[in-house]
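Each field is set out as follows.
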Amino acid sequence: MLILDIRPGHEEEDTQSGRRILATEIAKPSCTVIVIRGAGPGVSAFAELAAARADPVPAREAIWVKDARIFAVGQEQALFAGHENACAVIIDLDDVPARWLAKDASAMDIERAWLQVEER
């Protein structure tokens, strides 16, 4: 799992680096990506479950964006539009947001959502 965050005193550098990494991972042609947003105990537990579902599958990537400033202008809205309570979105092979998950989703919920996106 890739974790993108912004360190104090490195705001510009970490923001730009995080945006490049996020764009590169989403654009991979043979990979579905789960983008997790936010911080806190519930999101942390969700991120661990998502990483466990991604790690054994080479065509999956989990990216945890802990600081919303990493999203490019309008990107977070584009990824999560209509799903304000979601902490994660699975992006399909065409780079389109396909499934959204709340932080209380179980490992099986995450796996089912990922399989549904992969079956498209």
Summary: The longest helix spans residues 11-27. The mean pLDDT is 96.
